[in-house]
Structure formats: C-alpha cells, structure tokens
Design goal:
It is a single chain. This protein is an alpha+beta fold. 20% of the residues lie in helices and 31% in strands. β28, α10 and β29 form a beta-alpha-beta unit.
Length: 787
C-alpha cells in the first residue's frame, strides 16, 4: 500500500515498510525493514550537535548530506559517498543540486523503455527531483505486497535547452542508518557459479558486479546484507537484485558516520549517454526485499517474486518437461540414427522432451566454425530438422533445439558476407573467445536479421523448446552506428531484449531455456523472456549441491535447469552414485544428459523409477517453498553435507534432500531439523526406495559373499549390470513440531560393519530423499501457553 501523509511517504508490503519524508529540498529515507507505525519526528536523523569539518548545504535546515540517509543525493554538494547519478552539463559543470519536488501515486505501472521489467505490480509511486541546470530525475517504486518486494528505478529527463551527458545512472540507492552488516555476494566462474562469499562490512567501499557484457558467473547481481545474528531461519536480512543481463555495478559504502549506502545499476565504466533537450533515459529495475526470517526468508520472498512477477507467459506456472539433452552424450559427433537411438531409449525411460544441442548446422563438427549459419547439416540430419522433429514426435517426444544467435564464427558464411556485423574496434583485431565473435546488436538490421532467422527456424519444424546459448564475454566494444560509444553496452542489451521480445513473443507456446556457458547469464532480465536457465555446465552431484544452494539464494527451483550426467563426471572426473545425481537434480527442472543407450539394464530401471518419482512430485520439486537445512559450504558433524526441503503452500506435502560430500568415518548422524511444516499436523515420513551398485563395496564384497570373486572382474560387472541392492527403508509418523524442533532421526550411517536394512550405506557424494505427507488427523489444538 502507498500512503502519502503530509511530508511522509509510506510504501508498505505485507510485512515490510519503506518510509521517507521531505527534509527541506531533500528526501530523507526514514526506515526500510519491518512494517512499523511511522512517525516523522521520531524517525528523522537528529543533527543538532553540529558537523565539525563537514559541509553544510544552505536550506531550511542546516544539513550536512554526509550525515543523512537520502533517496537521491545531490552530487558535488558535500555528500562524499558515491551517488546514483553523475552528469556533465553543456558548460562543463558537474554539480547536480537535486531538489525534491514531490511524490505522486500512479495507477498504471511505468515500464522502462527498451528494458524488461517485473509485471503485475500493485501500486507505483514516483518521486520527482529537479536540478537548477535542467535535469529531472524520477525515482519510480512499484510494490509487490505478497512477496515483500519493492522495485526501484530511475528515469532521467533533460528539461533544459542544452545537451546533458549522463556518466552514471544507477537504478537504486538505499541508505541504511547502521553499518553492522554481513555482505554476501554470489561469485564464481565457469563450472563453479554463485558461491556465497560472506564478510562483515568494514568502513569503506565494497564494489562488485561485472564488466563482461553479461550479468556474469563472476558475480551475480543478487546479493544480501544481514544484521548481526541473522542466519538461515531468523534475523533481519535485506536482499537485492537487478532486472538486467548486461554489465552491472553493485556498491556498498559505509561512510564515516556509521551509515551504509547500497547502490546498484548498470556498470558506469565506459558509459555515457547524452540527452538532447526533452530526451529521457530509463534505467533497469532494481529489486529490494527484506525479511526477519533470515536468508531463507529473503530467498522465499524472491522465489515468489520471480515466479509471479518475472517469469511470464503460458509456461510461468506450468510444470516443466523432463528432457534428454544429447550434448554430453555425443558432443558434436552424431547423426540422425544415433539421435533416434538415444530418443527411443529416452522415451522408454519416461523422458518427455528430446533436446538436440550444438552441432546440427553448417560445418559445425567442432566449436571452431559456423555460428551464424543455421542451415541444417544434411549429412548429419538428411531429413532436416522437420524430419527429425516428426520422427521424435512419432516416438512420443517433443523436439527441442539449441541455438546461439548472438554470436558469429569468423569461419562462417554470415561473417564472410557481413564482416562488419561483428563487434570490433576500428584498427584493432578483435579478441576471440571459443573461436567466436559477438554480433553487433546495436545495429537494427542485425536485430531484424536475427528475428527473421529465428522466427523462420521455429516455423520450419515442430520445435517446442529452444536452448538459447551465449558462449563468450564481450570485448572490443564499439559500434559504427552509435554516435556516442558510451552507449554501447546499454544499446547492445536493448537490441538483444528487442530480439528476445519479438521471438519469444511470437512463439508463446515454445519453452525457452537461457544458457551462457552454463550460468554466465543467470539473471532476472533473461527470466523476463525465458522461463528457465541452464544453471551450470557442471553436472557433478557435489558441485551441483553448491551451485544450486548458491543460486537458490535469489532464484527458485522452477527456473533452474538441472541434469543427471555420467559418472565420472565430465567437469570434475569425480564419481558419484546415480541415485545421488538424481536426488540433487530433482530440486530443479530435471533433465538427463548422458548416453542412455549405454546404461546397464539395472541403471535403466533406476532411471525409469527416478523419472516416475519426479513426475509424481514434479509440482512440489519445481514450485514448492524451499528451505535450506544444511549448507554444503559449512562442514558439519559427520563431514560435508547438504540438505534442502521443499514444502507445498498448504504444508500437506514436503520432500527432503539429505546428501553428503566427503564423509567422516564412524560418525553419528545428528537429527535433521526440518522446516516449513505445520507444527500441529502429523506427517508420514518415507524414504524414497533407492538402489546401490554392488561395485560401490569394492573388495569388501568378498567379506560378505560365500565365495571369493574378482571384484573388478567380468562376473561382478555382469551381475552389477543386472542387479542392484536396495537401500534401507525408513518410515515414521511424527508431528510437525517434533520434526522441526527435535528433528528427524535417520538410521545410522555405514561404518565398516556391513550392509543391512538398519544401515544407510552412504559413501562420499551420496544422497537420500524423504517424502512427507500430512495425515488427515489433525493434532489436538496446543495447550494454552504452549507455542
Ligand atoms: C555451452 C552450454 O552451456 C553447453 O550446455 C552446451 O550447450 C555447449 N555450450 C554447446 O556448445
């Protein structure tokens, strides 16, 4: 709800409140956090003691900007912290004396021009500021009450009669009146994306973000600030994100007076945008949330927000199909026969969608050529895409296809006919990455070409899914069509968004999955067009626990593509159990990415059972509310572990992942405290029936078998291919309060003493799943005084 009450401006969601008030020509931030009963005099910064050497701006009140929490800080007037806007006026001056003009409530949202934005906001507020030099700023806030999210952005307009050059225009400035926070960023690189890095703030600046032309696996735009004592389930935590897919900047500055300024927006490095009189510039939307339920509360707010207000179209809340992707099964080495053999086996296992990855076009038998030439390689696919698509459909599978539209190989027909379409700086040979160059999407004719090509491709065959890849960072940035090169990065992104809007908009029934060498562009901007993202090229079960845990900080399972791949894993060469790979991948959009024709009969029946189990609980896995019970980043008693839980909105169903990394031998298993259940209901807890490969026991087999066998010999392999051992069965009924307070007491872990149904055989990198259902009989109401 938005309330304007004299000088006071209130923005309130279900549990949070953002309060501000006029202070002379300034707009003071009074409080953002838990919803309260605001009172302006009580919340105002008290500054009666004088300012020492600090600068005082003339005004109704003698204010020093450095001591205040402000919505938009004047630039060059004594607030020595960095602000949202930096501008250069026609006379060369740079001072922006922002003066608050007033607040206005809008019925209609004001979407940013040329950029994606959240949809379905409840109310919008616009705070307007002007400068003496004729630059106007509007701060635009939109409320998403049930998600406890407020979005913010900036719109600049030249209201003067001379050009103004904008050098920095961030989306959001949040000033907080204290500085005792722990900042967590989500950083990494290819194959190890979004690892939480937490460190307490110290006086000074923490600056992070990306300069790669994409939101980047080096540092995601999502980050959080936690008050002392806050943890996964409790305490005050702020979450921040940005609806943008290009280079971005986040900056947390603690000034000399114990305050914290949080900035976020597009990367200002190399940016400049000259506004002619009357012209306007929109920035991307920044996303803010707050929770008293710790980092878990922040995640659940953001998950709801992504599901309800970022992802759109018919796939927004539709369960996503289980797919088989041929990439790690074949890489570039395939033909139609091989693909159809994979597909036939996939169908038998329960797969719904067959995705043909890279290598189906031009001369592309390696990554050295042909990007841009999306004509089918008829040696590999003699019947073309339509031929393959129809054959897959006849098998009962939907057909999905990989493309990488934003790139061009120097060895391609496209490049030979349009060398000027590749991004390069005059006089400098462009740097290659994966043998490819970036297409200049600042050029309208390149955008139109891609829209035409992609629409034609989609209409040429029964394609129901597109994996839209993007495999390099941007360098050598320059576009001859731009009069001002400082516009390059934003213009390029606007060009890409236009292409995405047109292509996805004209094929609403096609499911699009964004990808950028795995998770190099995992952001809210992409999710406005494509309902899911390939989380990482790293499919190792243990690495995935880390990557999915980190990613879940800001993004729900319903947008994370997660595949079961071969073991040893292709990225780490690490070995893990087939069941563990599934248990982890199930907490996202399940896929398989391995040669299913080479699975043993026993493995095939395991995979078929996995897929059947996933389909039975798909809605819960993809859309359930997530609780992180144990972090793979925090070693615990018993060794490395990871536990997640998803709970249905009505709390009648839940699934629990209980997984280990490197185990500690002969250690006890402490009770696992569950979360999110109804304390007053009884639940049945059942372990999922899983299988163990007898070869996992190695030579220990001889200790239990009546005869001695060569444990690496043919006999054991032949037996293992047909027969697997059952895991222990666990089944309990217990009340929600017991499960959440005392915790689930699982069976003891194998400790060198044998295999039986009382022992959980859990070697390194293994896992279990538990399924909970509420029993119809409600417990009696709690006694008075009992929580
Ligand atoms: C990078 C992606 O992340 C992979 O899944 C695969 O599609 C390759 N590109 C294909 O080149």
């Amino acid at each position: 709800m938005i309330r304007l009450d004299g000088d006071l401006i209130c923005l309130e969601t279900d549990h949070t409140g953002y309060y501000m008030a006029r202070r002379g020509a300034l707009l003071e931030t009074l409080h953002y956090g838990t919803k309260i009963q605001p009172d302006v005099p009580a919340l105002r910064e008290k500054t009666g003691a004088g300012y020492g050497t600090d600068v005082v701006v003339a005004g109704a009140e003698p204010d020093s900007l450095l001591h205040l929490c402000l919505e938009l800080t004047p630039d060059g007037r004594g607030d020595f912290r960095m602000g949202m806007v930096s501008a250069r006026f026609a006379d060369g001056s740079t001072v922006c004396d922002w003066a608050f003009c007033g607040a206005e409530q809008k019925e209609e949202p004001l979407p940013p021009a040329g950029l994606p934005a959240a949809w379905g906001g409840a109310e919008t507020l616009v705070n307007t500021f002007t400068t003496t030099k004729g630059l106007e700023a509007q701060l635009i806030y939109t409320l998403y009450p049930a998600c406890d999210v407020i979005t913010r952005r900036l719109r600049l307009r030249n209201t003067g009669d001379a050009p103004v050059t904008i050098l920095r225009c961030l989306s959001s400035q949040l000033d907080l009146p204290r500085r005792e926070y722990t900042l967590t960023t989500f950083t990494g690189a290819w194959a190890r994306e979004r690892r939480p890095q937490a460190a307490p703030l110290t006086e000074g600046v923490r600056e992070f973000g990306s300069r790669t032309g994409n939101s980047s696996h080096y540092c995601n735009p999502f980050f959080q600030l936690a008050e002392p004592g806050a943890g996964e389930d409790s305490g005050r935590v702020y979450g921040f994100n940005l609806i943008y897919s290009g280079s971005h900047l986040e900056r947390v500055e603690t000034g000399p007076y114990g305050k914290t300024r949080v900035l976020s927006g597009i990367q200002p490095e190399h940016f400049s945008w000259t506004l002619a009189p009357g012209e306007m510039l929109d920035t991307p939307e920044a996303v803010l949330t707050f929770s008293r339920q710790g980092t878990g509360g922040v995640s659940r707010n953001l998950h709801r927000f992504v599901q309800r207000h970022i992802v759109r179209g018919p796939w927004a809340d539709r369960p996503r199909p289980v797919l088989l992707n041929n990439w790690e099964a074949t890489y570039f080495d395939f033909n139609e026969g091989k693909l159809l053999r994979l597909a036939k086996e996939a169908k038998k296992l329960g797969i719904e969608l067959f995705v043909l990855d890279d290598g189906w076009f031009g001369k592309r038998d390696s990554d050295t050529c042909s990007l841009g030439d999306y004509t089918v390689n008829s040696k590999k696919l003699p019947g073309g895409l339509a031929g393959l698509g129809h054959k897959l459909n006849d098998l009962g599978l939907a057909f999905g296809l990989w493309v990488e539209p934003e790139m061009v190989s120097p060895d391609s027909e496209l490049y030979r006919s349009h060398p000027d379409w590749a991004v390069q700086t005059p006089g400098i040979s462009p740097a290659l990455s994966r043998h490819q160059l970036v297409l200049d999407l600042c050029r309208p004719e390149v955008q139109d070409y891609l829209i035409g090509q992609l629409n034609a491709l989609l209409d040429s065959a029964p394609i129901r899914y597109i994996k839209w890849d993007m495999n390099r960072h941007m360098t050598d940035c320059y576009s001859p069509v731009l009069a001002e090169q400082g516009r390059f990065s934003l213009c390029w992104m606007q060009g890409l968004y236009r292409v995405l809007e047109q292509v996805t908009g004209s094929h609403p029934e096609v499911l699009f999955e964004s990808c950028a060498s795995g998770g190099n562009r995992f952001d809210l901007g992409m999710l406005c067009y494509m309902p899911q993202i390939w989380t990482s090229d790293d499919t190792d079960a243990w690495e995935r626990m880390k990557i999915q845990s980190g990613t879940s900080g800001g993004y729900p399972q319903s947008v994370m593509g997660c595949h079961v791949a071969a073991s040893p894993n292709h990225q780490t060469l690490r070995t893990s159990q087939l069941e563990a790979r599934f248990d982890v991948a199930a907490f996202g959009i399940l896929g398989y990415e391995l040669d299913v024709t080479r699975l043993s009969p026993a493995e095939k029946s395991v995979v078929a059972a996995q897929i059947a189990f996933y389909k039975q609980h798909r809605k819960l896995f993809q859309f359930g509310q997530l609780y992180r019970l144990a972090s793979p980043f925090v070693p615990a008693a018993g060794g490395e572990s990871c536990a997640w839980m998803v709970v249905s909105d009505d709390k009648t169903e839940a699934l629990v992942l209980d997984a280990v990394g490197r185990i500690e031998p002969n250690s006890e298993t402490p009770p696992l405290r569950l979360a999110g259940l109804d304390p007053n209901r009884r639940y049945r807890v059942e372990s999922r029936a899983q299988k163990i490969d007898i070869r996992d026991f190695g030579t220990l087999l001889n200790a239990v078998l009546p005869v001695s066998v060569n444990t690496s010999g043919l006999l054991v392999h032949a037996a293992a291919d047909r027969y697997m051992l059952d895991t222990e069965k666990e089944s309990y009924t217990a009340a929600g309060d017991l499960l959440m307070e005392a915790g689930l007491r699982r069976k003891a872990r194998f400790a060198g003493t044998g295999y039986n149904e009382e022992v959980r055989v859990m070697p390194d990198y293994s896992a279990r799943l538990y399924y909970l259902t509420a029993l119809p009989d409600a417990l009696p109401a709690p006694e008075p005084g009992r929580p």
